[in-house]
Amino acid sequence: MALPAVHARSRERVLRICAAGGDTRALRVRLLGEFRGLLGAEAFAFLLTDPVTSVGCAPVARVPVLPELPRLIRLKYLTAAGRWTVLTGAAALSGLPEGERGPLWEEMLRPLGVRDVASAVFRDRFGCWGFLDLWRYGAEFGAADLAYLDAVAGPVTEALRRAQASAFPARPQGTGRPGPLVLLLSPDLRVRGQTPEAPAYLAGLIPPEEGRAPIPAAAYNVAAQLLAREAGVDPNPPRARVHLAEGLWLTLRAARIDDGPGSRVPSSEREIAVTIEETTPADRLDVFCRAHGLTVRETELLGHLADGADTGAAADAMSVSAHTVQDHLKSVFTKTGSRHRRGLLARALGT
User: Fold this and answer.
1) Against a cut of 0.85, is the pTM above it?
2) What is the reported pLDDT for 206?
3) 3-state secondary structure labels for all residues of the chain
4) 341 with 311: CB under 8 angstroms?
């Protein structure tokens, strides 16, 4: 459908915001300003996601139930209706009968007086880069609102992916490397304990307000994905890779604590351990290739170079000529803004 004039003008402003770029947080803050100005959402959550698992991390959010954030995230992941992992376009919760809206609506949103939620996912052929929820209390979202979110999804997806690509500078020499760090969560995602260094890294992922402790939202998300996987809602592993600072990428994983042989505690009642550690070179390389939009063959070549292959060895492994390898490498240099192999691999692998 053709967008109303006010929506079309907002779309043009979104295109300019996307073209201007910026880091992932600043970009999302500017986009939210435009979305909320047009659509009037009273609350929101705009998350980055691991491009492979689609698990959320590093949210920019304003929700009215901050003390209940673990419960909110748990219910979000356990709700199949309108889940970002299955969305093919923007959708509103009001488009579903109340009986089919799932546990997030039934147990939290409706009691809070939320009238509607509009959701959008930002996905391309390289992966899933983020999702957005906008909450309204006063009125439902209309067809024009959803058409607008569909119209900006492509440019926003590309901008988010470019912003992630910019998060691969070469690591400064002598930079400290974390972990592994651990948070221990209860089955309902309340923090039971953590290693001493964990709060500093959590604060880096989501800067807390002055005087407040960091909110472990990234840990809640991977733990909630574990619950969703156990419940059969989504099969993706409970894992997310996220950029912290200065080229440092972290991987968060969630798993149940094993109570040992003979334990009678059901799995669903066991505590959850969330580990935080530096992303391995192989996993970092995967995100690097996806974020820079490398083709399958370019990604394959970079993998061979990372394993130490020279041009001849890479050509043999790929069953192509050395000339073709050089053509692929020139394309990789152009897409990644690199000038030589050493610098390219240092950025891609974090070494």
Assistant:
1) yes
2) 80
3) CCCCHHHHHHHHHHHHHHHHCCCHHHHHHHHHHHHHHHHCCCEEEEEEECCCCCCEEEEEEECCCHHHHHHHHHHHHHCCCCCCCCCCCCEEHHHCCHHHCCHHHHHHHHHHCCCEEEEEEEEECCEEEEEEEEEECCCCCCHHHHHHHHHHHHHHHHHHHHHHHCCCCCCCCCCCCCCCEEEEECCCCCEEEECCCHHHHHHHHCCCCCCCCCCCHHHHHHHHHHHHHHCCCCCCCCEEEEEEECCEEEEEEEEECCCCCCCCCCHHHCCEEEEEEECCHHHHHHHHHHHCCCCHHHHHHHHHHHCCCCHHHHHHHHCCCHHHHHHHHHHHHHHHCCCCHHHHHHHHHCC
4) no
Beta bridge partners of 276: 181, 252
Q: How high is the pLDDT of residue 67?
A: 86
Distance CA(100)–CA(104), nearest Å, equals 11
Q: What is the per-residue pLDDT across 241-286, written as a single tens digit (0 to 9) for each?
A: 999 988 999 999 999 998 777 677 788 889 999 999 999 999 999 9
The CA distance from 77 to 66, in Å, is 17
Residues 6+ apart with CB under 8 A from 249: 167, 241, 242, 243, 278, 279, 283, 284, 287, 350
CA 185 vs. chain centroid, Å, equals 21
Q: Token pair 């659509």 is at which residue?
A: 39
First to last CA, the chain: 49
**Would you mind telling me the total number of residues written for the chain in this entry?**
351
Mean pLDDT of 112-141: 97
Which residues make Cβ contacts (< 8 Å) with residue 266, sequence separation at least 6? Answer: none
At 74, the amino acid letter reads: R
Residues 6+ apart with CB under 8 A from 6: 38
Q: Which residues contact 317 (CB under 8 A, 6 or more apart)?
A: 304, 309
CA dihedral 213, 237, 188, 103 (to 10 degrees): 110
